[in-house]
Amino acid sequence: MKKIVASLAVLAIMATGCGAGGGAAKDSKTIKIGANLELSGPVSAYGTAEYEGAKLAVEEINKNGGVLGKDLELVKLDNKSDKAESASVATKLATKENVVAIVGPATSGAVKAATPSVTKAKVPMVTPSGTDDSVTVENGKVWDYVYRVCFQDSFQGVALANFATKDLNAKKAVIIGDSSSDYAKGLTKSFKDSFKGDIVDEVNFTTGDKDFKAVLTKIKDKNFDVLYIPSYYEEAGLIIKQARELGITQPILGADGFGNEKLVDLAQAKNLNDVYYTAHYSDKSENPKVTDFVAAFKKENDKTPDAFSALAYDSVYMIAKAIENAGEADPEKVKDELAKIKDFDGVTGKITMDKEHNPVKSTLVIKLEDGKEVSNTVVEP
């Protein structure tokens, strides 16, 4: 029933969005970019981090003369970590706010919910962190108005499976996955398809669960080398904490959903040992582009930026580059220029857009000890 209601809500929203988004008016003094982000709700840490990164990028671009002689204006709306709300926000940004492009959402489910809205309005959407493979391509069809700056779940799953085998010498794995999350299901499939060893057990939970002791007790005495948790920080942090408290000492693997300070808050630093996760960037990098970004972000927000802030920062700069290359703030032309992005030098790596609107870029596998990054390993595509 909930799925039917959500679908009807999306259809109703689409019905109100008649016509394409117009972009900036010729006499406008600014060029509007929308931000459709999870600023409240269960995964608000991601959306908040992305807003901070996007805001910094807009401020820097404007200080350096803007784009095509105009300032960028970031129009932020909260999708409340809700799929139906994400569709509504996308429609409002595209048809009422007349943005030239949209940054976000942060999560794959919210991106897919917003896709019909941006497609109907013909306004491009760049997700910083929607990693589900089907975000840009579904059933062989490329979504014309959807792009991303992050790598895909299939790449993360392969990278983690190979890392487990080659770097951790793992021959047996246990998976604790979220059966209600497209993100988790995609990561699980990719890992299982790539892992050379045995999957000893696979158990599931659903988003919002808090007590994982029964699941962990079930696997505790099994013979395995690594525990793989394809999940967002909200559940992953609690699983890690409860696993360590039950005496499960094996290395823990996770994807980019681990990359937020909330993971440390939930798991507690003392439990985050021998933990590895795929990441889009490291703030420990000595690349001048990264060090400049980290310094500027710290000055603005009094904290170190995470990967989600970095991805959103790159998203805005990539949109600005597309507007510049288009020669005008026209959504259709900006969409076309996004598809042509090549060797874009971002803080999360060099990006070339492939024919399915996915960036060709490397990833990192970061190791945590006492909740802090102690090393990172580059994994090439």
From TrEMBL:
Single GO biological process annotation from the record: amino acid transport
SUPFAM superfamilies, sorted: Periplasmic binding protein-like I (SSF53822)
Keywords from the named record: Amino-acid transport, Receptor, Signal, Transport
Signal peptide: 1-20
Cited Pfam families: Peripla_BP_6
Chain ranges of the Leucine-binding protein domain: 30-364
Family matches, as InterPro entries: BCAA_transport, Leu-bd, Leu_Ile_Val-bd, Peripla_BP_I
Keyword flag Transport: yes
Family: Belongs to the leucine-binding protein family.
This protein's name: Receptor ligand binding region family protein
Organism in which the protein naturally occurs: Carnobacterium maltaromaticum LMA28
Name of encoding gene: livJ
